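Below is one record:
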Amino acid sequence: MAEGKKGFFGRLVEGLTKTRNNIVSGIDSIFSGFSAIDDDFYEEIEETLIMGDLGIQTTMAIVEDLRNKVKEQHIKDPEQCKEILIGSIKEQMDLGENAYEFENRKSVVLVIGVNGVGKTTSVGKLAGQLKDQGKKVILAAADTFRAAAIEQLTEWSARAGVDIIAQQEGSDPAAVIYDAVAAAKSRKADVLICDTAGRLHNKKNLMEELKKINRIIDKEYPDAYRETLVVLDGTTGQNALAQAKQFMEVADITGIILTKLDGTAKGGIAVAIQSELGIPVKYIGIGEKIDDLQKFDANDFVNALFHVQS
């Protein structure tokens, strides 16, 4: 494991402490407290996983898989179930290869999410990381309705050392995207990252706005690879899942950025999102620093959750 990754894994283990206390200590006490594998045993596991924000649907699938494997392998000792359970959770999260295709192509990345989830910060961190990979990155400040968004993104562009295209607060987001696409083409940018407005309380407006933005990109930059990431706040648990479902109604979501996983007891939501929605969690955030946003690895995540050395 590379030094950077190892450091992040350590921070992930630390960041998931509350979730681990919420889920794993409960699971461990079930494994040690039961002498036989019976319906009560499975029910206790079910309850612990649901309380840990893995969601009912995902929990049912994990427990069903556990039941089947226990039967197939003729396991009698509850202690032996732990590894099977960890394996089942990993399987639920496996969506095949997590694609980061946009990194290797001329691409436009739309980032959407409601205010307060860490959307603009995630855009800035992502820009910084791509710049460090030697990419030419341009930011578009198309969240024009939130007073501080343009200012905040301008600060991040300076910190990351990338260009930004912005207009006045309250201007038309689609006009900002139009200018940004023109700049991305003329400056031969590798990746254009667009910070867009997130107002889910008025889905119709948001839908119209995103349609308009998408039309401009389709028309002006048809050969660009498209990525649409929705930013969700990990501390909101099942609410984040509900939000993701709403965003899926208004946009073609290709991935999730899950923020604020440090210090939340609801980290299990990462499992539920990936399992229930079939959309990959592509990045997770566990802090404020630029390198605290990292590519998501389901294997590492579950290992950190159960404090298993990978």
About this structure: The chain is about 50% helix and 15% strand. Residues 203-220 form the longest helix (18 residues). The chain has two domains: 3-93, 101-253.
